[in-house]
Amino acid sequence: MDYEDNFTEYFGTYEEDDPPVSHLTHAQVASLVFHGVAFLLGVPGNAIVIWIMGFKWDKTVTSLWFLNLAIADFIFVLFLPLYITYVATGFHWPFGKWLCKANSFIALFNMFASVFFLTAISLDRYVHLIHPVFSYRHRTLKNTFFMIAFIWVLATLIGSPALYFRDTLTLHNNVTICYNNFHPTDVDLIILRHHVLTWVRFICGYLFPLLTMIVCYSLLVCQVKKTATLTSSRLFWTVLAVVVVFFVCWTPYQIFSILELSAHHDNYWHDLLRDAIPLSVSFAFINSCLNPILYVLLSKKLQSCFSVTFSELVKHTLWEVSRSGTVSEQVWNSLSLQQGEASELETSLGEISP
Q1: Residue-wise over 172-206: b if at least 16 C-beta within 10 A, else e?
Q2: In the chain, fewer beta carbons within 10 Å around the N or the C end?
Q3: What is the pLDDT at residue 317?
């Protein structure tokens, strides 16, 4: 996922007498800072969410979505020290081929799993609030577990090319790089595979989820005029904040990944991408530590008391979020009650009518 990921011919510019990189650019130093922050905040933050959602409370549909989103982020931040070491040592990979493959796979796996879970949460919100009767009948724990398993399998399949193409190469200066070995010699095949994987990643991991979420939230916002439930829902604003932050963090990386395709034909892009992609990658990766922070900032307790702990603030927001899982049941019961009252009225009218 770093700026040197997709070029095999690019590394041919190294000469035998080239020394290892002795200093980092400002962009690379900033990238290291972002990655360090993501690791230091992401590990305890996501661990707290997993502990609360996974072990302290009963399972609900909503809590399962947020639990698995935290698991995806937690797995990723655990691998961040490998990438931090890679950049800090001047892009020297000392961990071997299999960790090279695993590290890149986990990065892609996290991106796809996170965006798929966010898409599922958005669709779940839409069905939950707009189609309460359908939600009451089909929005069950069993169906949720099935969808969660499907998302994990789908994210694994789409991220699996990294397990095949990622490779290590030791240069003449004894620096080992971790890169995408699309083909040893065939430049046309290198370009083709690079284009295919980049566009699949963009469409499946960014464009389609983005359009789906825009449609879902546009339809939900249209209901604001009809009911105050949506605007007062802690879950609605929590999910919306998580979705917006995800796309703000990942949009620069997706843009530069597409621009990177032009580097096969224009050397001008090499200098730009050398600084731009490390920053965009670090900006994307820091998203994995932001969700627990958002839960804290959105907590009502934060507005009234600053003496509570981080975990208590997270727990309070997640409790409000998980509690909203009963909305459909309340709507369904209300509809059933109204239908029952209507039936009783019709019966009474029938008895007194001549």
Answers
A1: eeebbbbbbebeeeeeeebbebbeebbeebeebbb
A2: C
A3: 59
Q: What is the mean pLDDT of residues 282-288?
A: 83
Helix, strand, coil shares, percent, the chain, to 5: 75, 5, 20
pLDDT at 102: 93
User: Which residues, at least 6 apart from 308, have a Cβ–Cβ distance to it below 8 Å?
Assistant: 301, 302, 316
Q: Which residues of 307-345 are buried (b: 16+ CB within 10 A; e: fewer)?
A: eeeebebbbbbbebbbebbebbeebeeeeeeeeeeeeee
If DSSP states are collapsed to H, E and C, what string results for 291-313? HHHHHHHCCHHHHHCCCCCHHHH
Tens of pLDDT, residue by residue over 58-113, are 788 888 888 898 898 899 899 899 988 988 888 889 999 999 999 999 988 988 99
More confident residue, 10 or 141: 141
Q: Closest Cα to residue 84, out of 107, 63, 68, 61?
A: 107
pTM: 0.76
**114 and 127 Cβ atoms separated by less than 8 Å:** no
Please enumerate in sequence order all residues whose Cβ is within 8 A of that of 239, keeping only pairs 6 or more positions apart, or say none. 118, 121, 122, 125
| Spacing of C-alpha 305 from chain mean position | 30
Nearest alpha carbon to residue 14 among 92, 105, 119: 92
